[in-house]
Write a structure and sequence with these properties.
It is built from 13 helices and twelve strands. The protein is of the alpha/beta class.
């Protein structure tokens, strides 16, 4: 081997994380849905690994939104053998965590990463932005706001709200939180918030953000001129003032970086689950005008999309 060839090999060795990545290994993707965000994440994942010169074989199993397809898909994954399993979406991830304990697993497009921390063979990238990031953006978009209202189901979100209250306090904000144990608790909680909160934060909560309650939250926001911070661009389109959005291709690339390290010999448990590293946002300019909220032109220009 010439000196130049040896140098190139050394660089590739370091990029792989300290051990060579074997080519031709099989990576299996178990995907919850074929919707656009999943396709973008798959594209980002494959593009990243391709850019690193990793020539692995890819096989994709899609559940098409049907959890009943998970069992047969996982049986085929086991029968075919896999160096690495990459799951996309909570449905695929939950099924894989239950059934696959002996193959390294990287999860992508999951709301929260708590379950990944409990599995020694798994790591991944969540969808949720850190609370510090969320409150920093709130102060950037609504700099005069000091009190943040939030409704939450304590069985699902008590620890999160407790943590949010402390983080808000450190940022000079006050969290006004109301427990909601059933849909019939919503009207009284919103009535109390109308006198105490300047903004309503839509924390991820299966009870509070259910389709049956969504209309009530948005109506409350408009009737009281209290802007609603949506959990996604879909809510912004429906009337929320803004949401923080993800770059799904970059989420896939983040998972690709983890996959590269695992294929180079790193244990999944040595890679801490991560949050999205790129923040995008959507704005509803109609809502802003109706609530007389002045959004700087630079902020508007920087939005991923506006309504």
């Amino acid at each position: 081997m010439t000196f130049a060839a040896a140098a190139v090999f050394a660089v590739l060795f370091l990029l792989a994380g300290g051990s060579a990545v074997r080519t031709g290994e099989r990576i299996v993707l178990l995907v919850s849905s074929n919707e656009a965000p999943f396709q973008e994440a798959i594209g980002g994942f494959r593009e990243y690994l391709g850019g690193q010169g990793i020539q692995a074989g890819f096989e994709i199993f899609s559940l098409d939104g049907d959890p009943a397809k998970a069992g047969p898909a996982i049986q085929k994954i086991r029968a075919g053998g896999a160096r690495l399993v990459v799951t996309m979406g909570s449905m695929a991830t939950d099924a894989a965590l239950r059934e696959i304990t002996d193959i390294p697993l990287v999860a992508c497009l999951v709301l929260r990463t708590d379950n990944l921390k409990k599995a020694p063979n798994a790591t991944g990238v969540g969808l949720e932005f850190p609370l510090e990031v969320q409150f920093a953006w709130l102060q950037k978009i609504l700099p005069e706001v000091r009190s943040i209202g939030v409704l939450y189901n304590p069985s699902e979100n008590r620890k999160r709200i407790d943590a949010a209250a402390e983080i808000a306090r450190k940022a000079g904000l006050r969290l006004v939180a109301y427990e909601v144990n059933a849909p019939q608790d919503i009207p009284a909680a919103l009535d109390s918030l109308s006198r105490k909160a300047e903004v309503l934060w839509g924390v991820a909560d299966s009870l509070i953000l259910s389709p049956t309650i969504a209309k009530n939250l948005l109506l409350f926001s408009f009737r009281n001129s209290i802007p609603f911070i949506g959990p996604s661009a879909t809510w912004v389109k429906a009337g929320a003032l803004y949401s923080l959005d993800r770059n799904y291709a970059d989420l896939g690339a983040q998972c690709g970086e983890m996959a590269q390290k695992i294929m180079a010999g790193a244990a999944p448990s040595s890679l801490s689950p991560a949050a999205p590293r790129k923040v995008q946002y959507s704005l509803n300019l109609v809502t802003a005008r109706q609530m007389k909220i002045d959004l700087p032109e630079q902020l508007v220009r920087g939005a991923r999309q506006t309504y």
